[in-house]
TrEMBL record:
It comes from the Eukaryota. GO terms for cellular component: endosome; membrane; trans-Golgi network. Transmembrane segments: none annotated. Keywords: Glycoprotein, Methyltransferase, Signal-anchor, Transferase, Transmembrane. It is a single-pass type II membrane protein. GO terms for molecular function: methyltransferase activity. Its EC number is 2.1.1.-. Belongs to the methyltransferase superfamily. The lineage of its organism: Eukaryota, Viridiplantae, Streptophyta, Embryophyta, Tracheophyta. This is Methyltransferase. Pfam families: Methyltransf_29 (PF03141). It is found in: Membrane.
C-alpha cells in the first residue's frame, strides 16, 4: 500500500462497517493522521461505534487503544434518534506535547529523514510524523474559514518561490485567483444565461492526459443528458470547433461560443430531436 498525496485535510469522514483500522500496525489510521492538518477531525460512522456485537466491541476497544496512543481526542459520540446510527468524532493534536509525554512510544514517531510530504512510490509506515512547529511550514496553521479561504494567499507561499506563471508565488496565486474569478463571473455565472438555481444534477468531467475519441464521448454525453440539458466545455479552440460541429449535426442549440488566444468556451443545449433511423456505431459494440 502506498501513501495518499499530502493534502492537509480539515476533516476525513469514514464509513465502512466493521472495518478494523488498527490492522497492519495501525497503518491505515496512521496514514489518515498524516494527511490531516494539526487539529483536524476524523469522523467515523461504523457499527463498532453504536452496536454491541462481540466483533464490534472488539474493534471498538482496539480503536480506543490506538487513538489514545496516537494522542487523538475523542470529541464526541452521537447517535441518530431515528435510525440509531452512531458517529464518533476524533481530533488530531495541534502540538507535540502529548507525543513527548507518552510513557510508551507506540506507535513510534517517524525518523527525521522520513519526508511527511513524500507520496509517490512511498509505502505506508506504521509511524507518526511530528506536528510542524515552524509557522511558515505547510500544515502548521489552520487556514482561513470558508469561503474566505478561496481568495486568501496561503501563509506558506514565499516570495522566494516561483509560481506556475513565473511570478513570485504569492503574486502568482493572487493573479490566478482573480483570473478565474473573472472567468466564472463573466462566463459561467453571467455569460451563458443559465439559471443555476434551477439545475439539479451536474456532472464534471476533466481529462488532461491521454486524449479521447470525441465522437464516442459526445455520443455518451447525448445518451445520459436529459432533453434541454446543457453541456459546457472549456478546451483549446480546435476541440471547441470540433464539438460545436458535432452539436449542430445533432440539432443541439449553441447557446454560447467564445474564444481568446488558443482557449475556447462552448455552451450547447440538447434538443428534443431524435434521428428517424438508428445507426450502429462501431465503438458502441461491446
Amino acid at each position: 500500500m502506498e501513501r495518499f498525496l499530502d493534502i492537509k485535510l480539515d476533516a476525513w469522514y469514514f464509513q465502512i462497517q466493521r472495518s478494523s483500522l488498527n490492522q497492519h500496525g495501525g497503518k491505515l489510521l496512521l496514514e489518515l493522521n498524516r494527511v490531516l492538518r494539526p487539529g483536524g477531525f476524523f469522523v467515523w460512522s461504523a457499527t463498532p461505534v453504536y452496536q454491541k456485537l462481540a466483533e464490534d466491541v472488539e474493534i471498538w476497544q482496539a480503536m480506543t487503544e490506538l487513538t489514545k496512543a496516537m494522542c487523538w481526542e475523542l470529541v464526541s459520540i452521537t447517535k441518530d434518534t431515528i435510525n440509531g446510527v452512531g458517529v464518533a468524532t476524533y481530533r488530531k493534536p495541534s502540538s507535540n506535547d502529548c507525543y513527548e509525554r507518552r510513557s510508551k512510544q507506540e506507535p513510534p514517531l517517524c525518523e527525521a529523514s522520513d519526508d511527511p510530504n513524500g507520496a509517490w512510490n512511498v509505502p505506508l509506515k506504521a509511524c507518526m510524523h511530528k506536528v510542524p512547529v515552524d509557522s511558515l511550514e505547510r500544515g502548521s496553521q489552520w487556514p482561513e474559514k470558508w469561503p474566505a479561504r478561496l481568495g486568501k494567499t496561503p501563509y506558506w507561499m514565499l516570495s522566494s518561490q516561483v509560481g506556475v506563471y513565473g511570478k513570485p508565488a504569492p503574486e502568482d496565486f493572487t493573479a490566478d485567483y482573480e483570473h478565474w474569478k473573472r472567468v466564472v463571473s463573466n462566463s459561467y455565472l453571467n455569460g451563458i444565461g443559465i439559471n443555476w438555481s434551477s439545475v439539479r444534477n451536474t456532472m464534471d468531467m476533466r481529462s488532461v492526459y491521454g486524449g479521447c475519441s470525441m465522437a464516442a464521448v459526445f455520443a455518451e454525453v447525448d445518451r445520459i443528458l436529459r432533453p434541454e440539458g446543457k453541456l459546457i466545455v472549456r478546451d483549446n479552440v480546435e476541440t471547441i470547433n470540433e464539438l460545436e460541429n458535432m452539436a449542430r449535426s445533432m440539432k443541439w442549440e449553441v447557446r454560447m461560443t467564445y474564444s481568446k488566444d488558443k482557449e475556447g468556451l462552448l455552451c450547447v443545449q440538447k434538443s428534443m430531436w431524435r434521428p428517424t433511423e438508428s445507426e450502429t456505431l462501431t465503438y458502441a459494440i461491446a
